[in-house]
Amino acid sequence: MRIHPYIFLTIAMLFFSGNFIVGKAFEGTIPPITLAFFRFATGSLVLLPLCYKTLIKKLSLWRKEWKPLLSLSIFGIVLFNASLYLAVNYTSSINASIVDALTPTVAAILGFIVLKESLTKLQIVGIILSFAGILSIISNGSWHVITSLSFNIGDIIMLFGIICWASYSIIIKKHSYKFPPIAGLVVTMIIGTMILMPFALIESYYVGFPNIFQQHILLGIAYIGIFPSAISLLLWYRGVGEIGPAKASIFFNLVPVFTTIMAITILNEKMTYPQLFGGAIVLCGVYLSTKSQKKFHQKAL
Length: 301
Description:
Elements lengths: L4 H21 L6 H26 L1 H6 L1 H22 L5 H8 L2 H12 L6 H18 L4 H6 L4 H23 L5 H27 L7 H29 L1 H5 L4 H13 L6 H18 L11
Helix pairs in contact: 1-5, 1-11, 1-13, 2-4, 2-10, 2-11, 4-9, 4-10, 5-9, 5-13, 6-7, 6-9, 6-14, 7-14
């Protein structure tokens, strides 16, 4: 029986969404850099059997292209994920996922600045709408918060994270054609893991190394290492292969929807009117700001 690619993509987004939930659930249990390290150490091991032959055959390529690979690792693996896991220590997973939905819009702006890509009037309207929606969310609908600049630090950290991811997307546009998809991703994950390791050790020295030999912690680490970091990506590539990147990228709008549902049912978070209103505006703005784009942004949420 043939499974429709929309099902693959929907399941991939569901698994991506779980990353926000696990990150929030481990607040105060596993520090953010250490959690990012465990995620990509596990993800690398899971994906390695699928591409180890390619990794060996392409050794000369990895050495030659070490600069873009290092840049991809720093922005996409290290900074984005450390920001995500740090952000949910200070803000709700609902807020973090809705702010994260702004990524394609920020990528469009960076594409305009760095790659000299043109922006249509519709995209500019979408960008303005997206930022208006985010402003509603991070201010919790309060004009006083806006005028006093007293925003939630977690939302600001998440905004920094999406700037890092948008930068990653720009590098992907310029260099991804050089690398085999899964093998190239695994190389950046391995490099990212190596960069994260000393920082995780320093973090553990100051805040204490988590007791990972507990069932719920092991399950959480296994989840973020296997599902959003490995299985989701395989489902994503399968879906993109069947319906194309333009249609597939629309499915990323499901991430804040799934995250919100899981946050309410699993973490007992509350959905506020500013989140609902702002989230709807953000998704509309993202749709408009990416409507004319034909390329997708590879993501490992």
